[in-house]
Amino acid sequence: MTITVLLYFFIYAFLGWCCEVCFAALKEGKFVNRGFLNGPLCPIYGFGVLAVVFLLQPFKENFFVLFLGSVLITSIIELVAGFVLEKMFHQKWWDYADKPFNIGGYVCPLFSLMWGVACLVVVDRIHPLIAKVVNFIPEIIAIILLAVIIILFASDLIATVKIILKLNKKLERIDELSAIIKKTSNEIGENLATKTIDLVNKKDAIEDKIDKKKKLLEEDWATQKEARREVSEHHEPGVGDIKQAYRELLEASPFGQKRLLRAFPALKSTQHKEALEKIKADKLKNTESVDIIEVESTN
């Protein structure tokens, strides 16, 4: 029984991934490896369909109850999965905030109803066929096949988690560099502003003494010039180094991170929102550059 259930889970996780790829192809006109994992599996589909098939099996002849139950079960699974993933990785993988009557951006009536219709088809038509195929597989072959799939699945899951953790560290580093650049720029601006204000104050104090005024202005101008030189020597090289490191960090994006950004275009970070948007903008710019080069090469 356990072997059969696990096979069902991976089959529906694979079919769910296929549906996501087809939907993305229709929407964007190209292949996008959708899903949380690198491999062709979307576990949330496996959990969702299994829950519907086993919990609503007694009501499979009553389409109305089956539909409502499917909507409720799949919505709860999607809500819990979205909430847990966000709390674990501090990122929101999908967001229905722009859809009416959504709950926290995790679920919305439109997609819940689509889940309900899909589950009707699965329970009534697809699952009986899959059950026959699974029952036809000899037990020893099923065990070997399942062992291979579980090993690949576990390896993929570990690799994906590592990629996400590295992405979070990258976002944190970008935010740190942004803060350093802002602080250094503020120090430069405050230094120049202070010198300018001092110059104006001294000018007002010596209006009645032209000669003395001229001398003090010359001294203040020399002081301001020296201050600018000191700022240039001490701060600008440092700002340049920081900005260079900042640019390199933005441009560095391992394969796994690029795939996640393509797979989840609505991905949001709860802790490093601005840093993630900068990475997305940089990825979009690089993609446009590649497209231009390809067009020029074709011509």
Automatic annotation (TrEMBL):
It comes from the Bacteria. Signal peptide: none annotated. Residues 167-219 form a coiled coil. The keyword Transmembrane helix applies. InterPro entries: CmpB_TMEM229. The keyword Membrane applies. The chain crosses the membrane at residues 6-26, 38-57, 63-85, 106-128, 140-165. Keywords: Coiled coil, Membrane, Transmembrane, Transmembrane helix. This is ABC transporter permease. It comes from Acetobacterium paludosum.
